[in-house]
């Protein structure tokens, strides 16, 4: 039976980015720029209908070479942006994942991140039904989406993928119902604090 209401969403968590004060404009590192090839290699044999991204530079830059290959523009949606981080420590990470309404001072809670990301995703599922969509995203934003469809996805799952940059995962939907997911590729960039 043909599923013309089956929509594929390929999320691409950004490649390794430089640290900086302004989260929106942090560029990819030299390694991150090279690792974009993994994204292109993963996508180039696919049929892709459109590219969307968080408006953050590192997310756009990670999928740019793939969008160029397909000669398609990258449309940005502010709702796919990363969580606003305030002042926090390691204990806050556990608190955030055990209580989605918790946020450190000047930070954004996971409930808010999840709500706006799912709202944007559901809009795309409706507008691009039956198509294949690529979305450039972030670790926490993507994790809240995965948690929305699988409440068992928690802190340990987030920590498993936290150093994967880029990380590419395919989610398949019938209408708005998730029917399958597949991890397609990742590059493990162990985070070493200087």
Can you walk me through this structure?
This protein is 37% helix and 23% strand. The protein is of the alpha/beta class. It has a six-stranded mixed beta sheet with strand order 3-2-4-1-5-6.
Span between termini: 55 Å
This entry's quaternary arrangement is single chain
- The number of E-state strands comes to 6
Helix-strand pattern:
EHEHEHHEHHEE
Mean pLDDT: 93
State the shape: globular
Gyration radius over CA: 16 Å
Total of DSSP H or I helical runs spanning 4+ residues: 6
Poorly predicted sequence stretches spanning 5 or more consecutive residues: none
Structural class category: alpha/beta
Element layout with pairings:
Elements: E1 6-13, H1 30-43, E2 50-53, H2 57-69, E3 74-76, H3 90-98, H4 110-127, E4 132-137, H5 139-149, H6 155-161, E5 164-174, E6 177-188
Parallel strand pairs: 1-4, 2-3, 2-4
Antiparallel strand pairs: 1-5, 5-6
Characteristics:
194 residues, alpha/beta
How do you describe this structure in short?
The chain has six helices and six strands, in the order βαβαβααβααββ.
């Amino acid at each position: 039976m043909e599923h013309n209401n089956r929509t594929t969403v390929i999320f691409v968590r950004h490649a390794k980015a430089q640290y900086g004060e302004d989260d929106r404009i942090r560029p990819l590192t030299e390694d991150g720029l090279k690792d974009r090839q993994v994204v292109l290699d993963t996508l180039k044999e696919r049929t892709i209908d459109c590219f969307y991204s968080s408006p953050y530079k590192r997310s756009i830059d990670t999928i740019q070479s793939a969008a160029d290959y397909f000669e398609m523009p990258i449309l940005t949606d502010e709702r796919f942006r990363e969580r606003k981080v305030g002042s926090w420590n390691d204990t806050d990470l556990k608190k955030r994942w055990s209580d989605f309404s918790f946020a450190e001072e000047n930070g954004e809670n996971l409930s808010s991140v999840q709500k706006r990301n799912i709202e944007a995703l559901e809009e795309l599922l409706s507008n691009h039904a039956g198509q294949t969509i690529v979305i450039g995203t972030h670790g926490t934003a993507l994790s809240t989406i995965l948690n929305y469809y699988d409440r068992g996805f928690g802190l340990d799952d987030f920590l498993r993928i936290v150093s994967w940059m880029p990380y590419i995962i395919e989610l398949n939907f019938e209408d708005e119902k998730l029917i399958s997911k597949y991890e397609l590729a990742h590059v493990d960039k162990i985070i070493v604090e200087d």
